[in-house]
Design goal:
408 residues; two-stranded antiparallel sheet; alpha/beta; 6 strands; abc type-2 transporter like fold; 4-stranded mixed beta sheet
Length: 408
């Protein structure tokens, strides 16, 4: 047992010293996590800046319009000069500007029609169109208030009520309407509301573990090419101890990647409880072991590092496609039936059970069974049939000596 642990520890230390493998296995998952956080970690609410050219500074209705516009959550206002707006539009620094014309407040006060002016490049972009809608909504609210005041004023023209009192009374009822509107909009949720992090995190985790299949296969082919395996076989080290130690080391590679992503998700997104986090680590360990066994199989079959790379990449992309890693797969479809043969289908289901459904480790037992079935075949047999460890003789191919018998 000590020899096995020594080999595993030596392989892990060698992995941590290799800057290339280390950056790919550790830094890349952190970078991907940062992208996930940037895409899904912030609020889904709109956030943008409305550029305003104010040619009617200090006007009563100008200030009211700017106040109404600033009440929109996520929208910030920036006032710029007309010359600056022209330059920014010409350089495509901004896509749209809202111009408040001179005499805007005076025209509204006297009941004359006036307009806000949109200056934009093309259609103004997606943000520009959203801001234009918010501007129209703010302008419509002021227009409706002025129309209500004008109608009330016409209705009580012969009573002699002052305009200021009319405006105050109308404003009072408008505030009451905004507080308790007659017409409201309700929302009924059918099914679960999709959470992007919960939806995509399991796929990202399992995909990175599958990337370790490539590293495992390459490492095994390289050691065979350099004669490292043959030299080790001349020592008192048993073949079973050698490859079980390497199996544990390759498993730890994938587990370290998964542990980093899950720990960051636990700390940043708060999607785990302490118990579910530990359960997710157990699932990750089983899946990393299954992926490691696949890497050993590919390394045993491939004759060159290029072959190992392409076989591993093809296997990874095939598993990602079949398992519905990022897109749901219908149960009754052909892809749904093929997904049963994808290793990470069960890992994705297990992680989603823990993350979204709050399930326990027992609810994810399917991944353990499938992981063992994959692990039991991590040595290719001459007859092409996988066997359970400790029962049969496997074979590891060698460029110089044909096949080396491997008893596990």
């Amino acid at each position: 047992m000590k020899k096995i642990l020594f080999i595993a520890l030596k392989e892990v230390i060698s992995f941590l010293r290799d800057k290339g493998d280390l950056s790919f296995s550790l830094v890349l998952p952190i970078a991907i996590f940062a992208l996930i956080y940037g895409a899904f970690g912030s609020s889904l609410q709109f956030s943008g800046t409305a550029y305003i050219v104010n040619e009617d500074p200090g006007g009563r209705y100008t200030d009211l319009f700017l106040q109404r516009l600033s009440e929109n959550p996520g929208l910030s206002l920036m006032q710029i000069s007309a010359a600056s707006a022209e330059r920014k539009l010409a350089r495509s620094d901004i896509q749209m500007v809202v111009e408040i014309p001179p005499g805007f407040s005076e025209n509204l006060k006297n009941g004359r029609s006036t307009s806000l002016i949109f200056k934009q490049r093309g259609n103004g972009g997606t943000d520009g169109q959203i801001i234009a809608g918010l501007v129209r909504a703010a302008a419509d609210s002021i227009s409706r208030e002025l129309l209500a005041v004008a109608q009330v004023k016409d209705a009580v023209a012969n009573i002699g009520i002052e305009q200021q009192q009319i405006e105050m009374t109308v404003q009072k009822f408008l505030v009451e309407e905004q507080t308790s509107p007659v017409l409201t909009i309700g929302e009924t949720l059918t099914g679960d509301r999709p959470e992007p992090v919960n939806q995509f995190l399991p796929g990202v985790v399992t995909m990175f573990v599958l990337f370790s299949v490539n590293l495992t296969a390459q490492a095994l082919v390289e050691e065979r090419r350099k004669g490292t395996l043959e030299r080790l076989l001349t020592t008192r080290l048993k073949i079973s101890e050698l490859f079980i130690g390497k199996f544990l080391a390759y498993t730890m590679r994938g587990f370290i990647q998964t542990m980093i992503l899950l720990a960051l998700a636990y700390a940043v997104f708060r999607i785990f409880t302490p118990v579910s986090f530990l359960a997710a680590m157990v699932v990750a360990l089983v899946f990393a072991a299954a992926a490691s066994s696949i890497g050993i199989i590919i390394g045993s079959l491939a004759r060159t590092e290029n072959q190992a790379t392409w076989i591993a990449v093809f296997f990874t992309m095939l598993m990602v496609t079949l398992s519905g890693t990022f897109m749901p797969v219908s149960e009754g479809s052909l892809l749904g039936r093929l997904s049963k043969f994808a290793l990470n289908t069960y890992a994705n289901d297990a992680f989603r059970t823990l993350i979204t459904e709050g399930g326990s480790l027992l609810a994810t037992s399917g991944i353990a069974g499938h992981g063992w079935s994959s692990c039991s075949g991590y040595v290719d047999q001459p007859a092409g049939l996988p066997r359970c460890p400790g029962r049969e003789v496997g074979w590891i191919s060698s460029e110089r000596s044909g096949f080396l018998p491997l008893t596990i």
